[in-house]
Amino acid sequence: MQEEKNKWIVDGGGGYKMNFVAKRFQTTAGSKITYNVPVNGQKFLIKNLTDGDVYVSLKETENKEECLLIPADTAQIVQVYDGPLIFETNVVTVIPEATSEKGVEVQCLKW
Question: Within 13 A of 28's CA, how many CA atoms are on the CB side?
Fold first, then answer.
C-alpha cells in the first residue's frame, strides 16, 4: 500500500488498483479537528471510535449548532447537497466530546 498525503493506493490483485482517501485522528475533548482532505469530496464516512459524542461539519466552524451529532461508537455518512448542481468540499471539521487514542476516522467515499 502506498500513501500520498492520506490518499492510499491499494493493490486489489490482478493489477487492479483501488484508491481511497481516509485518515484517523486521536481526539482531545473539546479540541476541534480540521481535516483538509486531499481531494474535493461529496460524500464522507465519519466513524466515531470514542466514548463520547462528536460534532461534524463539512465546513470550517467552531459552532456545534452548525454540526451533525454522531453518538459514541457509531458511524454516519455525511454528504453535501446531491442534486442537479454538484457541490464539493475539502474540509471536514470534528469537535469531540471525549479524549481517545482511537478517536475519529474520516473517509471520503465519493470525489
Answer: 4
Q: Which three cell numbers stand for residue 81?
A: 447537497
Q: Which residue has the cell 464522507?
A: 44
pLDDT tens for each residue of 37-63: 998 999 999 999 999 999 999 999 999
Q: Under a CB-based contact definition with an 8 Å cutoff, are residues 99 and 30 in contact?
A: no
Q: 100 versus 88: which is more confidently predicted?
A: 100
CA distance linking residue 88 with residue 51, whole number of Å: 30
Q: What residues contact residue 63 under an 8 Å CB cut-off, 6+ apart?
A: none
Q: What is the 3-state secondary structure (H, E, C) of the chain?
A: CEEECCEEEEECCCCCEEEEEEEEEEECCCCCEEEEEEEEECEEEEEECCCCCEEEECCCCCCHHHCEEECCCEEEEEECCECCCECCEEEEEEEECCCEEEEEEEEEEEC
The pTM assigned to this predicted structure is: 0.83
